[in-house]
Amino acid sequence: MQIKHHLVVFDAADLDAESRFWAGVVGGTIEADDDWHEVVVDGKPVVAVQLAPDHVPPDWPDGTPQQIHLDLWVDDISEAHEHVMALGARLLKGATNGNAADTFQVYADPAGHPFCLCW
C-alpha cells in the first residue's frame, strides 16, 4: 500500500475557532467548506478540522469520546482495503463521498481507533 499523504483531522463544534488556532500554530492559511476546514502550509494541507456539533472535550487523560482520526490517501483503494484488513482493521462505514474531490471508507484499527482510507 502506498500512502500519498496523511492528514490528522480534529473534530470540533466550532470550526472557525479550531481552524484559526491550528493555522496560527503551524503558520498556515485556512481553506474552508461548510463542515470541513483544511489548514494549508506551502500549498499542502497539514491538519484539518471536521464539524462535530456534539463534540465533547475529553476529561484528560481519561476522556472517552473520539478526538482525532487519521485520513490516509491511497492510489488503489482495493489494494489498501485488503492490506489494512489483513493487518486486523475492521470496516466501520463503506464508501462515502465527503466532498466532490475525495471518497473515503472508515475503518477501526485493532484497538478501535478510527481512520479513513481516502481516494
Could you give the topology of this structure?
Layout: E1 3-12, H1 15-26, E2 29-32, E3 36-41, E4 44-51, E5 68-74, H2 77-86, E6 90-99, E7 102-108, E8 114-118
Task: Describe this entry's structure for a reader.
The chain is of the alpha+beta class and about 120 residues long. The protein has a single domain, classed as 2,3-Dihydroxybiphenyl 1,2-Dioxygenase, domain 1. Helices cover about 20% and strands about 50% of the residues. The chain is built from two helices and eight strands. The chain has helices at about 15-25, 75-85; strands at about 5-10, 30, 35-40, 45-50, 70-75, 90-100, 100-110, 115-119. Strands 2-3-4-1-5-8-7-6 form an eight-stranded mixed β-sheet, with helices on one face. A hairpin with a 5-residue loop joins strand 7 and strand 8. The longest helix has 12 residues, at about 15-25.
Question: What attributes characterize this protein structure?
Answer:
2 helices, alpha+beta, 119 residues, 2,3-Dihydroxybiphenyl 1,2-Dioxygenase, domain 1, 18% helix, globular
The total count of helices amounts to 2
The overall strand count is 8
Contiguous low-pLDDT stretches (5 residues minimum) are: none
What CATH first level would be assigned?
Answer: Alpha Beta
Q: How would you sum up this structure in a few lines?
A:
By secondary structure, the protein is α+β, with helices and mostly antiparallel strands.
